[in-house]
Amino acid sequence: MTTAHLEHPGHTHAHHEGCGHVAVPHGDHVDYVHDDHLHRMHDGHADECEPQGHTPHDAHPHVHGEGCGHVAVPHGDHVDYVHDGHRHAGHGEHWDDH
User: Fold this and answer.
1) Residue 53 DSSP symbol
2) CA–CA separation, 44 and 41 (whole Å)
3) Higher confidence at residue 3 or residue 85?
4) How many CB atoms lie within 10 A of CB 54?
5) Residue 58 exposed, middle or buried by CB count within 10 Å (0-12, 13-18, 19+)
6) d(Cα 51, Cα 70) in Å, to the nearest integer?
7) pTM assigned to the model
8) Predicted local distance difference test score (pLDDT) of residue 51
9) How far is the C-alpha of 16 from the C-alpha of 36, rounded, in Å?
10) Which residue, 47, 25, 23, is CA-closest to 33?
11) Is there a contact between 55 and 96 (Cβ–Cβ < 8 Å)?
């Protein structure tokens, strides 16, 4: 899975530990939940951290939902669940990596 380098223009808030936004581990960096999307700090500015393409998470037997024990992260028109250092989103009959 790759992510696009989509700069979030005009974003003056610098996300960091303790900034007041939910921090979500995501591979080799940390995303911050802000206005129902995710930002990551990159070279002094904030980027939208959005996956490119469709990346199913194969062999994922756990069903996420309210009370499943994983952190729920609002993400646009759905909810992602933080699991094993990445986010899962329900998609049809399977889960995708986000």
Assistant:
1) S
2) 7
3) 85
4) 9
5) exposed
6) 20
7) 0.58
8) 66
9) 17
10) 23
11) yes
